[in-house]
Structure formats: structure tokens, C-alpha cells
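for the writeup, i need someone to sanity check this before i put it in the appendix. the sequnce is what the collaborator sent (i think, or maybe the updated version? ugh). structure was predicted straight from it, no edits. if anything looks off just tell me and ill rerun, i have time this weekend
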Amino acid sequence: MSDLYEMLNDTKNLDETDVFAPLGAYEQKKMRKQAAKITSASPKPGMLAKTACTAAVLCILVLSVSPTVRAAVQEFYLSLNDALRINRDLSPYKDVIHSSVSDNGYTLTLNEVLLDGNNLSISTSLDFQGQPLDTSDALPANPFLSELKIGGTPASYAVSYISSGPSQTEGDTLELVQTYYLSETPDLSAALDFDLTYQVLTDIDTPAAEFTFRFQADGSALASSVRHYALQEVFTLPNGGTLTLTDAACNAAGTTVTGTLENVPADYEFYLYGYDQEYNYVSFFEQDVSGETIFLKSDGWDLAENPVLNLDVLYADTVNMDEGTVVSLGSEPGPIYLDGEEYENVAQTIGSFTLDLSAQE
């Protein structure tokens, strides 16, 4: 059964509300495209993707329990390892925060933070105690980050991944991990001061609570562990444009493939999809495009442990679920059925290659 990655379906008020004013231009572009992504294998990240995880739901009332009980219950929040599908030990790299702020009947707890280059991943627990909360597909990121400062300076960012725990109907706590792609690479030589403001919305237009946090995050260990491998894979599109993959970089938090685009329309999106030597499937989704440079990210897949991948390179030009078009990785182009409804899979394969890094270790 395919897992559906849904973009925001209702963006008509995007320019009319102050709620979305702080979001970066790249994220707003992605919202307006109203894309849907599907993968026929295990869940992988997509822009504003919303996936189901099996992490336990637990009301983490950090401020009202003893330190002993607190240490025990904190093992049950949606961890970065579970959400990002990372098997390796992240304790040398992540910052454990466990700080809570309450406002208007809501309590938000920051659990863990992982700073991986341009990627800032944060695990949160929201205790809403029966208060109204919008968790519809129109607003998958709730609570959402309304402001971010790094070293006291406002930062531009876009949400690149969302993973949530079970539905709020199973309790009054919502577990959420969000990854933010930072448009500028922060200085990773030492710990950085972060100031975050989150808002909880009762609907897409109405903030009900606001939370401000300050903490330090240190991405220097992950930065020092990054391994780069040179690539030279060129793929030609039907319009004559080209995608050239030039670099693969990996660490304990995952793998990023970098490339360049030439004469490629702005609304094209690219994907890598394939399997390793043990037939574990892996997907790389377009994370960002800066000018002619493209970044494709896979969560939790480390080249050191799985150095050989057989990958297809795919692209899609126009993706709009409301108009019946989707991307289904691992399926042939053409009709595809989801919940009894027919959609058109518009993903097109433009080539394949073997990413063999075993000889480069």
C-alpha cells in the first residue's frame, strides 16, 4: 500500500494572513504547487510530508513530575532516531533539551535537537489538554515554527520534513518531529544560540498559543564526520536540459546528493529511488534548489554501512493531486489507484546508475 505525502491543499489565504509571513520563499513556492508524493516502499521525507509512526503517546508533563519519573517518561517521546529512520547512535551529535513552556492551556516541550549542516531537526511534544487543535491535512505542521533566530539574527528556512505520532484522538499529547532547511549554512565550528517561536493554531488562520525557547545546538561533531564522494553522472531531459550529479555526502544522520541543473524549468522536481545490496529501498527527495544547484536528501541512509546503491533518476514536471496527478516512486508512469480513486503517476525515469562508494572508502 502506497504511503501518501500530501502538500497543503488550501493555500488561498497564504498572502492574506500574518501567520505564514515568516515562512521562506522556497517553502511558499512548494505550498502553492500543492504537490503530492507517494512511495511504494517505506516512508521517506517529502516537503511537508506527514507520516504515521508507532512511537507511544504519553503526556509529558515535565514541570509537574519528579526528576526520577521525568527521566523515565522522556524515553517515550517521538525521538529523532525513530522519526528520521536512523539506526546509528545519535547521542554524540544531538542536543537534549527537555524544556517546556505553557500558554493558554497548552504546554509545548522541546525534546531533542539535531543540527546537520543546513538541516535543523527538532522533536517536540504538545500537551493540549482537550484544547482545540487543527491537525488536518491543510495544516500538518501544528505547532509550527513562526520565527527562528540564529545567533540573534533572523534566519530564512523552509520545512522539509514532518513526522508525527498517533492522532490526538488517542490522547491529549501530539508528538512531532520537524526538519527545517536553513537557506544559509550556519557556522558549525562551535555551539550556536537558537531562539525559536512556535504557535499553535486552532485553524489555519487563528493562533491560540505562542511559545518561545532559547537553547544551544552544536553541529560541529556531525560536520566533522561528513564524508564526501565525487560523482559525475549526467542525465538529459526530453527538453534538452540536464541534471548532473556531482557529489555525495554522508554522516550518521543521512546522505545528501548534490547536483547542477542546466536549462531545466523551475517547476520540475527530481527524485532518486532504488535499493542497496540487501534490497532495502531508499528514496532521495529534492530538498532545495539554490539557483542552478540542487540538493537531494535521504533520511537515515549512511553510505558507510551501505556503500552500493542501484538508483533510478526520476523527474516530474506538474504535480497537483487536486488535478489528479501524483508522484509514485517504484511504479510505472500512468494510472494509479489510491483509496479507490484513479490518479496519474507523472514520475518519469530519465536514467539510472550505480552509486558504488565501497572502493572510495
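The first helix runs from residue 25 to 33. Residues 1-75 have pLDDT under 50 and may be disordered.
thx in advance!!
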